[in-house]
Every structure is written in structure tokens, then in C-alpha cells.
């Protein structure tokens, strides 16, 4: 079993939940994927880090994502990258500006203005989190160059990202995740 197949197996066995659930987008779905069940597990973190690292543009100087869903992803990519000889600092994007100190939206090592950044998320439904992350990074003077997710639910997120000039890249799609399971 290769790394991608193993990560898919982990998503299906650890993260996929069936039943009616309201998503962060407000939509009601008959399934839910709690990717934290996988990316906070050592094997899942490693596999996620490896697979996303392979997708990141060579020009990217950092990897970033919105807290909380992307926190373990950016950390995994950063650590796996370092172990493989590619240093990509991890940037965490706050949902709300810090109420004290510098009031920053983006936490992590300060990079030169204009640094190119890969933006990641766990599961994409409408793309709102990735779009907000892109906007926050631009506001801090960075240049987001790509949007990557573990799972594209194929519910409009890819199209919304395309509308703002980004192509969504994902390790898996809803179709692949649910291919061998009945939802």
C-alpha cells in the first residue's frame, strides 16, 4: 500500500462519520470528515505532511493555514519538509486579530514582504476558510500562490477559489473518499 492509499484508509476508518451533521458552512450533510482524527495521529501527520509537501510549489517560502483545522497540517508539512531538506516555516492564521500586543492575524516566523506562501486546509466545502486565509496573508504582505486541501467535498469550494484566481489542489475528492463506502 502506498502513502496515498494508506492516508485514504486512515481517513475512511478514523475520520469519516455518517449521519446528519451541520458543517461550518451551515450546510447539512449526511457525512462528516473530522480530519483532526488523522492529522493529529503520528502516522496520519507524517503521511499528510509528505503528500502535501510533494504538492507544494518549489517557489513557496512557507506553508500557512487557518487555525484550528490547518494547524496540525502546517506543522506536519514544516517538520517533514525539514527532515527532507526543505525548510518551509509554518504560519498560523488567526480567525480574529490578536486583541493585544501586535494585533497580528498571522503567527509564525516573520518572512520578507512578498514571500510566496502555500495555503492549506483540511476539508473544503465552500472554500471560505481558504479564501479568508488568502486575504489575511495578502494583508500581511505575503503572496499566496496555491491552495491545497486534504479533501475537496466537491460542493463549490473549487469554483469559489477559481473565482478569486486560485486552483484548488486536493489529495482526495469526495468521490474518492466515498468510492468504496456507502453514504
TrEMBL record:
Give the cofactors, semicolon-separated: Mg(2+)
Residues involved in 5-phospho-alpha-D-ribose 1-diphosphate binding: 94-95, 98, 100, 121-129
Which CDD domains does this entry report, sorted A to Z? PRTases_typeI
The membrane-spanning stretches of this chain are none
Q: Does the keyword Transferase apply?
A: yes
EC? Answer: 2.4.2.10
Q: Which InterPro entries match?
A: OPRT, Or_phspho_trans_dom, PRTase-like, PRTase_dom
Reaction catalysis annotation: orotidine 5'-phosphate + diphosphate = orotate + 5-phospho-alpha-D-ribose 1-diphosphate
Record key words, sorted: Glycosyltransferase, Magnesium, Pyrimidine biosynthesis, Transferase
Output the Gene Ontology terms for molecular function: orotate phosphoribosyltransferase activity
Q: Which residues form the Phosphoribosyltransferase domain?
A: 82-162
Q: In which pathway does it act?
A: Pyrimidine metabolism; UMP biosynthesis via de novo pathway; UMP from orotate: step 1/2
- Where along the chain is orotate bound? 125, 153
Which EC class is the enzyme in?
transferase
Q: Which family does it belong to?
A: Belongs to the purine/pyrimidine phosphoribosyltransferase family. PyrE subfamily.
Quaternary assembly: Homodimer.
HAMAP family for this protein = PyrE
Under the heading NCBIfam families, the entry gives: pyrE (TIGR00336)
Known function: Catalyzes the transfer of a ribosyl phosphate group from 5-phosphoribose 1-diphosphate to orotate, leading to the formation of orotidine monophosphate (OMP).
Q: What is this protein called?
A: Orotate phosphoribosyltransferase
What gene name does this entry carry? pyrE
Amino acid at each position: 500500500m502506498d502513502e496515498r492509499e494508506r492516508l485514504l484508509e486512515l481517513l475512511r476508518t478514523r475520520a469519516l462519520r455518517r449521519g446528519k451533521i451541520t458543517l461550518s458552512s451551515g450546510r447539512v450533510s449526511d457525512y462528516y470528515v473530522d480530519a483532526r482524527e488523522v492529522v493529529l495521529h503520528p502516522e496520519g501527520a507524517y503521511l499528510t505532511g509528505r503528500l502535501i509537501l510533494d504538492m507544494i510549489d518549489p517557489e513557496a517560502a512557507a506553508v500557512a493555514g487557518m487555525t484550528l483545522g490547518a494547524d496540525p497540517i502546517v506543522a506536519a508539512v514544516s517538520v517533514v519538509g525539514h527532515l527532507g531538506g526543505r525548510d518551509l516555516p509554518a504560519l498560523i492564521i488567526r480567525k480574529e486579530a490578536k486583541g493585544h500586543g501586535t494585533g497580528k492575524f498571522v503567527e509564525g516566523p516573520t518572512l520578507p514582504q512578498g514571500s510566496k506562501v502555500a495555503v492549506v486546509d483540511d476539508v473544503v466545502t465552500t472554500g471560505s476558510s481558504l479564501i479568508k486565509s488568502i486575504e489575511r496573508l495578502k494583508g500581511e504582505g505575503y503572496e499566496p500562490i496555491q491552495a491545497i486541501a486534504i479533501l475537496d467535498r466537491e460542493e463549490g469550494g473549487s469554483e469559489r477559489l477559481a473565482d478569486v484566481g486560485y486552483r484548488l489542489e486536493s489529495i482526495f475528492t469526495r468521490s474518492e473518499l466515498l468510492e468504496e463506502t456507502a453514504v
